[in-house]
Structure prediction request, 130 residues.
Amino acid sequence: MTENPFGDDDAASTSEKRQFLVLLSAGKDSLSMTQAIVQNIKKDVDPKSNPLWIDSKGIGILVETELVAASIWNRAIAGLDHERSEALKDMLILEVGQDWMARKDAPATHWLTTHVGSPRLVPRDQLRRR
Prediction:
């Protein structure tokens, strides 16, 4: 096989698992749709995924998959009728990179440390002098 002069082959880069944070706006009026999306993610994207937090305005789910964000989106809303998918206020899917920061006692800290690694140390030139 010849080397790709433009970088990595797309097929090769999608075969490794990556971590994503799915942020989903949720409310009382869209509870059944939100539940359906969470079930779709658990069934079709990452069986080990669970909501990291749930509050009155939304839900955050950490997932690990070889899929790209657009495929996660499509699988998350699969099976929703047009009316319910149009009622989706907002969903944001972000790939978790190599650097992060959270409170030491936050639920996300353990997951991020386990799946991504420890956060980067602050470089000397960025430290505030007292």
In short: The radius of gyration is 18 Å.
